Amino acid sequence: MSTSASNSAKGKRVGLEINEDEASPQKRFAYSSSQVTSIKSPLSQRGCSSIAANNLDLSTSYTSIANNTTKLDISTAFWRNEALRLQQLRETDQAEIESLKAYKRGKEGSDNKSYDIKQILIDREKEIASERKEWEDRYSELKEESENISASFMNVLKKVQQLDGKIEQLNEKIVQLENAMAELECEKSELVIINKRLELEKGELVNAQIELQEEKKSLSISLQNHRGESSKTIEDLEMKLKDMGDITKQRDEFLSAYEAILAKSSNSEAEIENLQEELDKARAKLKRVQSIEEEIHQSRLEKLREIDI
């Protein structure tokens, strides 16, 4: 009787241990799952894929363990009821034994009757021992299953802890990425402002280019007019040069005449004086001709420079 009660108590204790271990990992596992599913940043979707897969594996493992736990609870309850039934049978047998003893004392039955009672008691004890052995074997199996489930729970807890660590790392990375995104947004705003400034400068450059085109056209017209004037000036210079060539020819003739006069002037001083006067006049004319040639040459050089510019 004490053995059955002890076994019943052990079966009850096993069931309680399973229920206590069952609550905490479930709650913690649910928290980890919500932690993973609460991450909605688009930057973390790829980073969460492997953790989501691990979460799915953990969910599957947890469901399997929960099912095994339910089966274990059902089996434990069944064998607890069996233990109670055996206890009741033992008490019934004890009552029957007491009743038979009273009957034996009251009736003083024959040896055959006494033998029948002893045989019944022996058979009943064997039946109870067989049922007890079967129940103890089943209890050992249930205990082993309970230990396996506890080990599975520990593995799940370790995986959940690892998953929590990965989630914390992922959250830190998400914070870093969000900070980087904020910095990029600031840089983007600065780039937008710079782009607007560049657009304004581009408009100013376009306007300046238009003004330059107009100024270029004006300069082109002025240059064409200036070239026309320069062409006319060059023609005038060519005419002056032609006249200068005539003057040079006259000068040569005058010098020839002057040399002839000098040859003739050796006869008299009067003629020499006259020739000296004529020579002075010729020299003055020569200086004037040279001055005119220099002016024409300088004017031509200036016009050529203006044309080149």
Which short descriptors sum up this protein?
disordered N terminus, mainly alpha, coiled coil, Substrate Binding Domain Of Dnak, Chain:A, Domain 2, 4 helices, 309 residues
Describe the structure.
- The protein is an all-alpha fold and 309 residues long.
- The chain has helices spanning 2-37, 45-107, 111-264, 269-308.
- It folds into two domains: 2-198, Substrate Binding Domain Of Dnak, Chain:A, Domain 2; 215-308, no CATH class.
- The longest helix is centred in the middle third of the chain and has 154 residues, at 111-264.
- The chain starts with a helix and ends with a helix.
Overall 3D form: rod-shaped
Unreliable segments of 5+ consecutive residues: 1-44, 109-113
The number of distinct structural domains comes to: 2
Which class best fits the helix and strand makeup?
mainly alpha
C-alpha Rg, in Å?
66 Å
Overall CATH class of the largest domain:
Mainly Alpha
Helicity range of the residues? over 70%
> Would you list the SSEs in sequence order as H and E?
HHHH
Mean pLDDT score, rounded?
69
Give the tally of β-strands.
Answer: 0
For the biggest sheet, the summary is: none
CATH architecture identity of the largest domain: Up-down Bundle
In short:
The chain is 95% helix and 0% strand. With 309 residues, it is mostly helical. The two termini are 132 Å apart.
